[in-house]
Amino acid sequence: MPKVEIKHLTKIFGKHQKAALKMVKENRSKDEILEKTGSTVGVYDINLEIETGEIFVIMGLSGSGKSTLIRLLNRLIEPTSGQIFIDGNEITHLNKRQMLEIRRKKMSMVFQNFGLFPHRTLLENTEYGLEVQGVPAEERTRRAEAALNNAKLLSFKDQYPSQLSGGMQQRVGLARALTNDPDVLLMDEAFSALDPLVRREMQDELLDLQANVQKTIIFITHDLNEALRLGDRIAIMKDGQLQQVATGEEILTNPANDYVRSFVEDVDRSRVLVAESIMVPGFTANVDTDGPNVALHRMSKEEVSGLVAITKQRKFLGYLTSDEVVKARKEQKSLRDVVEPMPTVTPDTLIADIMPIIYDAKSPVAVVDEDQRLKGIIIRGAVIEALAATEGDEHNDA
Amino acid sequence: MPNLMMTSKLPLEQWISDAVAWLTQNWAGFFNLIQQLGQGVMDGLTGFLIAIPMPLMIAGLTIIAIVTSPKKWGFPVLVLAGLGLVANQGLWNDLMNTTTLVVMASAVSLIVGIPLGIIMAKSVKTEAIVKPILDFMQTMPAFVYLIPAVAFFGIGVVPGVFASVIFALPPVVNFTNLGIQQVPVALVEAADSFGSTTWQKLFKLELPNAKNTIIAGIKQTIMLALSMVVTASMIGAPGLGRGVLSAVQHADVGSGFVNGIALVILAIIIDRFIQKLDTNPEQVQAVSHGNVRKWIVWGTIVVIALGGVVNGMMSQKATGKKVNIGYVQWDSEVASTNVLAEAMRQHGYNVTMTPLDNAVLWQSLANKQVDATLSAWLPNTHKQLYSKYKNDVSVLGPNLKGVRLGLVVPDYMDVNSISDLTNQANKTIVGIEPGAGIMAAAQKTIDAYPNLSGWQLQASSSGAMSTALDKAYKSKQPIVITGWSPHWMFSKYHLKYLEDPKGTMGTTENINTVVRKDLKKTSPDVYKVMKKFKWSKDDMEQTMLEIQNGKSPEAAAADWIKAHQKQVDQWFD
Predict the structure, then answer these.
(1) Which residue of B has its CA nearest to A132?
(2) How far apart are CA A148 and CA A133, in angstroms?
(3) B268 CA: distance to closest CA in chain A (Å)
(4) Of B189, B204, B208, which is closest to A115 when you measure between CB atoms?
(5) Could you say which of A99, A111, A132 has the minimum Cβ distance to residue B200?
(6) CB-CB under 8 Å, A107 with B204
(7) Cβ contact A123:A155 at 8 Å
(8) Does the reported pTM lie above 0.90?
(9) Mind listing the pLDDT tens digit for each residue in A119-137?
(10) Cβ contact (<8 Å) for B195 and A115?
(11) pLDDT, tens digit (0-9, with 9 covering 90-100), for B44-95
């Protein structure tokens, strides 16, 4: 038996719902329906089964109805029609009191902007779910402290949310959701407000956690990378309707329709053919102000073995390898003395032409504009992947 | 489009009067109950505040100010110096009376307002209904509330509180509503997602988050209640407002400012103490010894309260027969009422003097809320009021014979009769309070004399009128005023009455003593004194001049009594 089962779930906002439903069945677009009826289709005819212990990711652009869907699951938003089952019990017809019980015991939610109460300490935030259940103070404090301890935040328990970084706040949000020991964890773009590094960390933590606790997690995101990293299965939504539900691999290899295909392609193929489309920002050292120590520090920090040398006017000079910079430090030289030549291309150079250049070079290739300013760098892997994709396309067309 | 002026006028005034009259009659029991309960609570609170020894209270409040604002000297110094100044000016009891009024009006406003604000925030329908009512309440001039307040609760502190509540309620309701609605949706969702009931959401999330907004509303409400103190004193609410009002009526700049400054000091102190409640939790965390401070504050409050209780028990209650004399703050009545009150006090009576607007005074006599007044100018000046209430009051006869009313001009003007007036003094007659009898006479005069068509009767106050006269007199400008004697201005300036061939301003008349209908039955002694009180025009003008020259009314009255002991003793035989 699936943990969560959804049958024909539909939510229409506004008046004239019948007319709107009729138009949805005729496959009219969201905008057209809004214009004609003044109603918005939140989600339409969703059917899903989610298994115990699965991380189920729901993806879509903003306005695709993913946030509405997750709120329908714990009935923060009332469904227009359809059924939701948890452990085989329908919850769509429960009264207010029974629904409170479901929210307290079975489901917890984590929010994009953390949703922490600013007037409560971390501990008070974490134990909130137990507090509204009327759990005795000692027990709830014990459980909340255990959850905070798992999140490595126990020493901050008497601080207020505003005193913490975003990542810490989201850990509290997660700890608060876990303190209730729910079966189902609803996560609404939980990591979207964090910076990329912290985001990766949190994703790893979530995966670690899932390995330990085996919750059913319904995770919403608009980021394909996040979905591929976390999701056991991924559902892609557009205009309130499901497009495809499958594993990440299947979605990449077998997109169900054109929308999914274009959605999972990070880049537009026609633009892959020039340097600009595959370059990444390069890490630079300014030879007029930075010395060898700064350069080495930056390399270790950014986890690279070379930097692009530029002048104070941000003009491109060449390449600095770690070996040469270490030498410069020993011999008390400046960075300018150890700059090595580096192959350059312009932003509109074709990828096919970059291939031979990069094949011989020890360093990445610098992309430089007509003013000799650095736009980015190209690394070997990107070129190979781009070429493989274009070849595949040609192969398919043939 | 039909001309609106041509169609007959809607009897709107009649409807409102009828509605209020119906309420007054049918709910009399309820209103009386409220009046008695309210009066009891207020008297208790004021008595308690006054019983607290003044130095103890000032010291205590200063200590609390020091403890609650660490390392800042401004506020404690203000408390100490400000309250010291109020006490030094002899306004301590007035300050306590005002405090009671403000505390009660604020308390009622908050008890009604905060729940109403919560209901509004939770229900769109309620908001749609209540919001326009609140806007109406806030924009209606506060004076208007005094009228039904007197009709329902008579005079004194209860109608003052009633009017203040109506006036001061809107901010706290609006701010509470706003504060709760401003709690971020994400937080409300979070609270819902953990299965909070409506009450849990309210007490654990919404109210704590809206707290600072609500406190801002509370502050506004308290300030509005304070501003109503002056207005409410027109219907007998005691306190600093009376001082301000009387200063306005006598154009007495000094006393007005002193009372005003006392109000400002009270307002600042209340405002700052409320501000102390408006904290964010992180700041509290940063303050060490928070508990010690709390203990000191509570300890001080307990000591102050104990001082009040002990002192209240020890001090002798003022004994003697109670009498409440109502008067209007015209110079003549201030003189006579103070003299009689002082004399009665010396003979062991417990006298309350209640300054009121003239019309309210007659109404209060009819409603038996005031025992007596010495200021009924009959037969002409107060004719309208007399005919309205003659069945509900008893007129005991004249206490001063031979007063005169008329239009008065400085003697440098070359008019001698009302019929000579053409276009002097911008065709304006400078009058006094609009409710005064002389104003009705003056209006009648303007209507009766054809040469006065186009003349204006300008209402102000007796004080403002004498100020205007003084100004015109010094610059030899023409001015026409509504004048009466006995009055000190006749001894200060050279003035003359204009002849009144039509007799519309009245001939000479008398000032009468009027008492409530059943005074003879319930307090025969008081009745007897009222019946016997008499003095002459010269007596009155003597006293008036002393007051005008800067003596306090009490002192001037005491002086006159000392000089006329025999005459005074006759009133009490």
Answers:
(1) B196
(2) 19
(3) 28
(4) B189
(5) A132
(6) no
(7) no
(8) no
(9) 999 999 999 999 999 999 9
(10) no
(11) 888 888 888 889 999 998 988 888 877 788 889 999 999 999 999 889 989 9
